[in-house]
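Hey team,

Filing this mostly as a record. A colleague (T.K.) asked me to run one chain through the structure pipeline before their review meeting, and I want the input and output archived in the tracker in case anyone asks later how it was produced. No errors, nothing strange. Just documentation.

Input sequence:
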Amino acid sequence: MEDTLRIAVVGAGGWGAQHARIFSRRRDTELVGIVGRDPGRTAARAAAFDTTPYTDIDVMLEEARPDLVTVCLPNEAHFEPTLHLLRRDVPLLVEKPLVFELDEADTLLAEAEARGLFFAINLNHRYAEPVARAKAAIDAGELGDVVFATWRFGGEPNFGTSPHANLIETQVHGIDMLEHLCGPIDSVAAQMTDMTRPGTYTTLAVALRFAGGAVGSLVGSYDSSYAYPDTHLVEVNGTRGRLLIEDTVKRLTVSSAGDATRRVWEAGYFDDEARTFEYTFDRHVEHLLAAFRAGDEPPVHAREGRRALEVAHAIIRAFEQGVRVPV
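Output structure:
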């Protein structure tokens, strides 16, 4: 195809394989390289996707000449490679979290803005079918005015060096999802526990207030298991109705106040795509590439990652100070 986009992936880890899968299989993209830190692992990953391995970003840029680079690195190793790529004038799609510190987020966003670069982040929960349908129902007024909302999500840990990895790395999806559905959060109060790993806050409970007047809660845990039923639940309750999102891609239930009947969406027998969590990323990429080709902003700009980090830092301050903190 004449308009085939050349894509390179920085990162040879588990989720990086999803990046490689998508761009190696699309007919309108060519996976031109994978960059990793370990030569053997990187070579194996590149061979699996029939592309070229690199262990140096600059060598990859010079030889592969990508139109767009995606970055999928260990959670606390995002800043330096992302900044380096921006300073090389490279359009980017990066994984969440954007970074762990607000000053680093501001540096990255300022660099991208100054250079007029496409700078996207993969908050892919937005692209689950139940979430898209929930957003449409809320926007259409089916729930009336939103009064409260709840996010609950827990599974096995993904530890790093930060005591707040659960909040910043994992529950970033919850912060983004609740604001996506219910509007901006304007204050938070929080409780956290490190009872299972002293010094690391593995489970947290947050009380939220939204700018529109609704209240909410966010419960996130590394002391749970993805093997449990109902690992993930989102509830949004309004003056006219309620909706429930179960396990991100499993089911959406919409109810009207006073009516015992419910409207339920679940993927049909042949619809494996809609029930598969990884394919929410494919859906995001479809929108992202359309925006990139059109010269538009990304559908989920990296500033959304900065916004989620801002709320996360307010939650940390609320816990440390024992007070409600404005966002």
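Quick notes for T.K.: The chain has a mean pLDDT of 97. The radius of gyration is 20 Å.
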